[in-house]
Amino acid sequence: MATTADFKNGLCIEYNDQIYTIVQFQHVKPGKGPAFVRTKLKNVKTGKVIENTFSSGVKINTVRIERRPYQFLYKDDMGYVCMHTETFEQLTIAPEMLENADLMKEGQIVEINFHADQEVPLTAELPAYVEMEVTATVPGEKGNTATTTALKPATLETGAEIMVPLFITEGDIVKVDTRDRSYGERVKR
Prior knowledge:
With 189 residues, this protein is mainly β. 0% of the residues lie in helices and 54% in strands. The chain is built from no helices and 16 strands.
């Protein structure tokens, strides 16, 4: 148990039978009336951010979350099978736990957040950037740049489609931002 005095950014709490992490908080002591704490809470499972006000001194249940590295092995009809990098324990992740799963290739490391007391996986996160080979794209045409950032569609080795600059060709290795599926840079090998 903790109180509002223990609030800090990143603290995981149980609120309305859901697990939230504190994104932002502010202690407010008005001239009249009792003190309170304004917070922005992010739902660990859904990612939805809500605002809530707690009375000062209210008791809150804290939750311990652990991040563990897992290696993606393969996808089957149950989900994505991953293996812990130290204990070699295998775990299947449901597809809805992972955003932009089509940017994940075999052998890649994935961070899985666990509810430490119940040993239940909550979310899975890809690394911020991944390097992938372009397997198919249309040739870029010279002079076809009406805007300063001319982009064309490209298919990556996992089947994912992203937009890349005109100079990217098949066989190029590109760095992709997994958070917004944007092109980062061409990787020199």
